[in-house]
Amino acid sequence: MVRNKSAILLCVLVVTSIAAVPVSAESSVYGNPELSLSVSDNTYRSSEAATLSVVASNNGRLEQGGPAQYEQEVQTAQSVEMEILEEQIDAPIDVKTGTVIAGTIPDSGTARFDFNIELGNAEPGTYEIPVEVQYKYVRMVTYGSVDGPEYTWRTVTREKSVTIEVEDRPQFEVVSEGNNAVFAGDTGQLSFALENTGTRTATSSSVQLTTQSPTIFFGTMQNPQSSTSLYVPTLEPGERTNLSVQVGAAAETQAGEYPVNLAVSYQNQNGVTETSDTLTTGIAVNPERSFEIRDIETERFRVDEGEAKINAQVVNTGSGTANNLAVQIGDTALVTPTNGESAIGDLAPGESKPVSFTVSIPAGAEPGTNMFPFVVEYENQDGDVRTTSPIRKSIAIEPEQDPFTVVGVNTSVSPGATDTVDVTVQYNGEEPVSATNAKLFVSDPISTSDDGAYLGEMQPGETKTATFTVSAGSSAVVKAYDASVEVRYDEADGDTRYTDGLPVGIALSPSSGGLPVPMSVLGVVALLGIGAIAVIYRRR
């Protein structure tokens, strides 16, 4: 019996000892993020492009706590992305942005999702914008294991919605524009139609216009202003009003399109002054006037010509009359104007008038086609002189023209004979010349005993024949030999001029008795004849 008690006591001690050995135990933290959506500014206007900013706020829920880092894990939304479900929107709203990703949103944190939208002609009121939100999070963290914590992940996709409001208010749009164009240095009218595209009447409206360029102004040339305003008493929804204001461009304004901003200040239904978004219209600036130089013809336009002439037509291709117009040859190193301006008076749109200029072309000028600038001067409506940019036209400078040319040569001289050579020359100048003499220059085997011929006075285009006496050596061959004629003449102002040598070909002709036989040939024939006589004599 004692033995049994001892055995029982031993067993109890063993069990107690085993229970005292430490054993590892696992614990868990679990919870989830909770996202709520809001719009910071949910007021919009119809027919506008805007940004819809959706703010996601995370108010995490903790179901079982534990270490702080694990509690944060289970309440954090990760890889958060949002998309607007455009096909479910019951309003004329066009979404221009796809899925927006914000990353991680911790407990008590926020993130903003921006979407570009365009509102059509939406009626005033509130509209639900459905969105889809997707994110992942750690549902549970199990810790206490010797292998470290274990994470259980979940992915959540939820549909939510936000509310926006389309306001009941006036809105404005520039719906048509006139032919808004002015010439640089002049004034004109800026015309446009303003329409109330909103849902409420605008009263006591002030349309403020502002230029965006320092060279565009409102008012007159003498009192230019950078801004001006127009008053519109009332403008009902859907109503439009035609507005016009005087606008101008400074003389230095480059051609092109220039914006003009306008904003409408009005009183709403509560008598509070509000201002519309900025609208834009524009003004086109043309060069002061536009002209063309056409139908260019030239006279004596050649190298070394003191009275070369240009004839042309100037055409007003613009839309306004140019007063007291004159055309000038612009600066050029090619020629020297001797009469470089042609005044023609007023020139209406589409009208043309002739102009002419006289220039001197130096002897060193190169023949060929060159660009010549023409400048048009005129007066604007204020009497100020304006100058256009150069109008460049190509004109060909011809080579220098010889005052005399050989137009005919006639001779019958033959080898071993003397005869005359008739050389006909033509005078190509513009003014008569006097004391004209022609001199012939030849070389061996041609010689001359009378190399001068007096031609006297010659008129432009006139021809005269100079006659010279020449001889051809007996050894000359029947062919043309080079020669030249130099002409001396006096111009109308008394200056004596000489031409360069004018080429002349003196062609030798066979003699009238038959073909000429050289002496060596005759000697051979004579020897043959003597030999034949001797043979006959011996036979006898």
Automatic annotation (TrEMBL):
Record has Acyltransferase as a keyword: no
Pfam families in UniProt: CARDB
Signal peptide: none
Residue span, CARDB domain: 170-276
Keyword set includes Transmembrane: yes
Keywords, in A-Z order: Membrane, Transmembrane, Transmembrane helix
InterPro entries: CARDB, Ig-like_fold
Residue ranges of the TM segments: 517-537
Full protein name: CARDB domain-containing protein
